[in-house]
Amino acid sequence: MNKITIIGGGNLGKSIISGLGNSDLFEAKHITVVDKSEHNLTEVKEKLGVSTSQHIIEAISDVKWVILCVQPRQLDAVLEEIKEELIADQILISTVTGTSIAEINEVVPKNKVIRVMPNTGASKKLSMTCISANEDVKEELVFVQKMFDTIGKTLIIEERLMQAATVLGASGIAFFLRFLRAMIQGGIQMGFHPHEAQIIAVQTAMGAATLVAKNGTHPEREIDKVTTPQGCTIEGLNEMEHQGLSSSVIKGVMASYEKINTIK
Ligand SMILES: NC(=O)C1=CN([C@@H]2O[C@H](COP(=O)(O)OP(=O)(O)OC[C@H]3O[C@@H](n4cnc5c(N)ncnc54)[C@H](OP(=O)(O)O)[C@@H]3O)[C@@H](O)[C@H]2O)C=CC1
Ligand SMILES: O=C(O)[C@@H]1CCC=N1
């Protein structure tokens, strides 16, 4: 029987569960969420009908898959708690930022570990999930990819790129949303009510991303289709570049990447 336990029902855990709970890979009753917070557990139980527990050992006792979804500083305590209880054919799936497969295997050497880096788009089945595993984890990798395919798009990557994947794909949600907020603020300054500016900016962002996704074109090709010579678009774009838009985004991405290498 395919059962899964998620340790940590916080921001990301909830997003994954709400996606997985609606997939046909697991029945809701075979998904268990463990969290310290009663409030988080009540929320996932009521909204998604999954099982919940505050006891890690009890919750992992007869499951094949265990997703680790706690903050990096909380991981050591969780691994220490479960290490004697895990049996060898249980598979650990870690979403934890900055901790390598080898570091997890130092504590739990018998278990196969797969690293995944989803994002909060998972709750709307729009996650981008990068996945990596060691060479000897083939069959399980296929299933885990299938699992995350149910909540968005997946890409198998080398583990050395996991930190970059975290910045681009997971933190990326926040980066795009900050740009979206700025567009909304511009819309309000031009005269729209905030909710109107939000409708326009959100739909436009979805249109822009979908053009690139469906046409397979480079963003600049789609930009060329919008920029009328001597028109208002190129005027706005050039001013944004004079103010350092591309440069500040790339610098922000690199600052995030430098920080991630210090997280533990
Ligand atoms: N949020 C995101 O968009 C993304 C996050 N990640 C990574 O995923 C992981 C989870 O992030 P996120 O969901 O944001 O973090 P949260 O803090 O929102 O969630 C973690 C949850 O785990 C609970 N928890 C911690 N220790 C235990 C324990 N021993 N037993 C039971 N429950 C426990 C926490 O409870 P309490 O608060 O009481 O400690 C909290 O509710 C992190 O490693 C993060 O770096 C990766 C990609 C995207
Ligand atoms: O901010 C963080 O450190 C985590 C990793 C990616 C999203 N949240």
UniProtKB/TrEMBL annotation:
Domain Pyrroline-5-carboxylate reductase dimerisation: start-end pairs: 159-260
Pfam families linked to this entry: F420_oxidored, P5CR_dimer
Domain Pyrroline-5-carboxylate reductase catalytic N-terminal: 3-97
Location of this chain's protein in the cell: Cytoplasm
Reaction(s) this enzyme catalyzes, per UniProt: L-proline + NADP(+) = (S)-1-pyrroline-5-carboxylate + NADPH + 2 H(+); L-proline + NAD(+) = (S)-1-pyrroline-5-carboxylate + NADH + 2 H(+)
Residues engaged in binding NADP(+): I7, G8, G9, G10, N11, L12
A GO MF term: pyrroline-5-carboxylate reductase activity
Keyword Nucleotide-binding on entry: no
Pathway(s): Amino-acid biosynthesis; L-proline biosynthesis; L-proline from L-glutamate 5-semialdehyde: step 1/1
EC category name: oxidoreductase
Transmembrane segments: 161-180
Superkingdom of this protein's organism: Bacteria
InterPro entries referenced in this protein's UniProt entry, alphabetically: 6-PGluconate_DH-like_C_sf, NAD(P)-bd_dom_sf, P5C_Rdtase_cat_N, P5CR_dimer, Pyrroline-COOH_reductase
Primary site of residence: cytoplasm
Single GO cellular component term: cytoplasm
Documented EC number(s): 1.5.1.2
Record's function text: Catalyzes the reduction of 1-pyrroline-5-carboxylate (PCA) to L-proline.
Stored HAMAP family: P5C_reductase
Protein name: Pyrroline-5-carboxylate reductase
Source organism of the structure: Aquimarina spongiae
